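Hey all, quick one. A colleague (J.T.) asked me to put the adenosine monophosphate job into the tracker so the inputs and the structure tokens live in one place instead of scattered across chat threads. No bug as far as I know, just bookkeeping. Sequence used:
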Amino acid sequence: MKIVSSPHEAYAQVSHWRREGLQVGLIPTMGALHEGHLALVRRSVSECDITAATIFVNPTQFAPHEDLSRYPRTLEGDLDGLRNEKCDLVFVPQNEALYPNGFSTYVQPPAVAEPLEGVYRPGHYRGVCTVVLKLFGILPATLAYFGQKDYQQLAVIRRMVEDLNVGIRVEGCATVREPDGLAMSSRNRYLSADQRRTALCLWNALTLVQRLVQDGASDVGKLESAMHEHLLTAGADRVDYARIVDPDSLQDLQTLNQPAIALIAAHVGSTRLIDNLMLESASR
Ligand code: AMP
């Protein structure tokens, strides 16, 4: 497995593979890898000739009060995990390589970035779009794999790729969960044992609403209230949102006679967790 920190070297290697006619799969990450990340790597290894991952904790997607400085960094373990999965190249740039002095060009994210996370983390998707577009330029892969765990991020990147004619196909991969249902996340390691138990309230609220919908409930406002109430009763410290929206636009829904997705962002202690579930309606 090649470990590369220079954008030039990464570009030269990936474009060499592409010129040889090889399919290259790309998995951008912020490290602190877990089974969710490794599932993306496995999918790429099974579908592509070459798999390249990136590890970079991108400062431009964190607001000043967010957890950039305490974000977990576990590089040696991450590299071992990627090596085990037969990843071919890992790009691990320094900050200065991606954001040199004088850097001042940013991507204006698409409209789908505005609701939900866009309200609670203004500027977040500007940073995400900027770094992802840079990574797509540095590692000109055939396909890029992203998790549905970050559902809005996946929608934002799909739209950016379409709007800006980026020649990389984006693939979404199912959320990998702990046995009890908690979505795997690098941020789960911030949780104490008590908080880890409380954190399950996100998944429980999502499955509660799924059950209510299958039993015929269709009032979106009432279903959203049921999620809120469950989260707070189960011990979440704050709920940023618990919404049911259109899966494409992420805009409000009037009825459930159409595809719908439930998304939650909630705080457990000082840790902010997100999760989502596509709702299967009994009537559809
Ligand atoms: P991150 O390192 O958190 O930026 O995540 C890197 C990629 O892994 C993103 O595409 C995430 O959506 C994806 N990812 C993170 N957690 C999971 C999970 N539990 N299941 C599937 N994909 C995930």
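Adding what we noticed when we looked at it: The mean pLDDT is 97. The beta strands are 2-4, 24-29, 50-55, 89-91, 143-147, 169-173, 238-245, 260-268, 271-279.
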